[in-house]
Amino acid sequence: MFKPRVMRNVKVIDLTHRMFGKLVNLPIYITATALGKLGHPEGEVVLTKAAGTKNIIQMMPTLASCSVAEMMDNALPGQEQWFQLYVNQDRVAVKKLLEKVESRGVRVLFVTVDAPSLGKREKDMRVKFVDDAPDESKHTELNRTQGAARAISTFIDPSLCWDDVSWFKANTKMKIVLKGIQCGEDAVLAAQHGCDGIVVSNHGGRQLDTCRSGIEVLPECIAALKEAGLRDKLQVFMDGGVRRGGDIFKALALGADAVGLGRPFLYGMASYGQQGVEKVIDILAEELTMTMRMCGVTNIKDIGPEYVLANNLNSHIGVAPKGYGFSNAYERMETIDSKL
Ligand SMILES: Cc1cc2nc3c(=O)[nH]c(=O)nc-3n(C[C@H](O)[C@H](O)[C@H](O)COP(=O)(O)O)c2cc1C
Prior knowledge:
metal-binding; flavoprotein; alpha/beta; two-stranded antiparallel sheet; single chain; binds flavin mononucleotide
């Protein structure tokens, strides 16, 4: 819950923020979501264009429907784009990909670490997906019975481990951020291994059922990093379920440097293309401005733990808000009446 402060001059609100040195208009970024053309015929370049006009950062997915070149060619001059990496078992292929991305000027690499195998996504398994697979997964034999996500991700290396961080550091100058940290111990290990950042995330709830959400894990990570004296060693991002400006505020208050959003931008893109994504960004900016004003804060850097009460964040007491998608948008599995 919020703990607003009043009687402060909140006439001018500044939402600008720096992420790895880049000045952006909002403390949010578009996180990596694979297969953008499922939502819009132009795919991820729609997100690129909206991120450009609104000056926020887009994280380009390894499994994008568009090529890295297409996404980067559609960026405005000076527009910052990050790259999300699913680590291929073939390290020569990884090295080539890193070189390609780095040579185009990408400065930050997000290595997804919560997907040694893809979760069991039953709705995905029921959809009969016929499109071409993205480049990265083309050379592997596709098993089409397990859903699109599993079919295109068999190249991912399940042997990825902490020792590999030094391989990345030796093979790229990009900053290294681990995406998918889910406890304080791993946050500390990431800092100890010299990573530049972490994303506290459960992959949008798409990997292992009954994992905690990002916002629930975040305070544990911040506390563990502080206790180890390592909080200033890395950037801490969080994603998952951020739907309103107030959610952004709460994550920053609990210690995140910025937050990622996935599905809200996909919904905007699928419904209204670039304008839809821009509208989502505008709505979030308006809501964040309003929340900051009503909490008595004028700058992003001043959003701190004193503005929220999070004591029972992990207790799950009370009624959890119902997700519209879960209860309404998806078709339920029908039981089949036996004719016997
Ligand atoms: C359709 C979809 C595709 C995704 N694809 C990827 C991916 O390719 N790589 C990755 O690291 N995370 C992927 N994610 C996870 C997101 O980066 C992010 O962790 C999550 O979606 C954040 O939650 P939100 O969608 O509730 O904002 C995907 C999520 C969705 C919804």
